[in-house]
Amino acid sequence: METSETQSETKANVVQLFSHFMARVAKFEDLAAAGNRFLVNFRQALEFIRRPSIDKTSTIFEKVIKANNTDRIQSYINAGYVHPSSRAENLNKLNTSHVQLLNITSKAKDIINELEFLVEDVQLAIEAAVSESSQDYHTDLDLEAATCSEEGNVSFVPKKPGDVDYAIMVAVVYSMVKQDYVMQEKIVSSLSLKTSSGELESYCLMWSLHPFVNDEIMHQAWSLIS
After folding, report:
1. Which one, of 122, 220, 206, 225, lies nearest residue 173 by Cα?
2. Domain span at residue 141?
3. Collapsed DSSP state (helix, strand, coil) of residue 125
4. How many whole angstroms separate alpha carbon 3 and alpha carbon 10?
5. What is the distance between the alpha carbons of residues 194 and 106, in angstroms, rounded to a whole number?
6. Domain DUF7795 spans what residues (predicted)?
């Protein structure tokens, strides 16, 4: 049988790894929040740049132009009825937002890789402890299997969680966060001047909703280190 001292050491190691894991998850969440802001900025800038021109066939429009046919009005008309400074400002906003989104997804990818290594470290720590004991069982922490149910109703944290409970939580949280990252990366890679208004609206909605992340499970995960 595994000694109580060995069990304590294993759990302490797993808890420490879990704390490192959740710290990286928090960093990922910060990046996701920043990415959401830049995605909204990208959408606003692109919508401004390609907004439709004034209806030049309007009688009222013609009267206004005739009554105010100045050099300033003419330059405004030549610029597509947009102040040159506003167009330049939004073009810069568009480019900056896209660059920042690419940077954010690059950093997020690094975090996902770090999370995967931590999941493996937790699994190895438990397997090593199990191999030292005479208990006849195998701890299966397959990453593909440790996912949320379709209903999203997952609750498996006991009042006194053991090392395996931490390991299962790590695998489940990793699966959710990775799916969220993949969605974000696909959104950013698809952005261009040709992205439609409908697509942009859907992208902003999906990014802000985090559809692959179960809030209840995340709450349980954070409660384990509170």
Report:
1. 220
2. 4-36+102-223
3. helix
4. 11
5. 23
6. 8-129
105 φ, ψ (degrees, to nearest 5)? -65, -30
Render pLDDT for 92-131 as a digit per residue (tens, 0 to 9). 999 999 999 999 999 999 999 999 999 999 989 888 776 6
137 within a domain of the structure (yes/no): yes
The residue with tokens 């919508």 is 47
Calpha distance 41→39 (Å, rounded):
5
Q: At what angle do helices 4-49 and 163-190 cross, to 10 degrees?
A: 20
| Per-position DSSP letters for 69-92, written without gaps between them | --HHHHHHHHTTSS-HHHHHHHHH
Q: How much is the pLDDT for 144? A: 47
In total, how many domains does the chain have? Answer: 1
Residue 199 placed within a domain: yes
DSSP annotation of 81: S
Residue 50 lies in a domain: no
Token look-up 């949320």 returns 148
- Global model pTM greater than 0.90: no
pLDDT in tens, 135-178: 444 444 444 445 554 444 555 566 677 888 899 999 999 999 99
Residue with tokens 């397997």: 127
Core vs surface per residue 51-69: b (16+ CB within 10 A) or e: eeeeeeeeeeeeeebeeee
Q: How many helices (H) and strands (E) does the chain have?
A: 7, 0
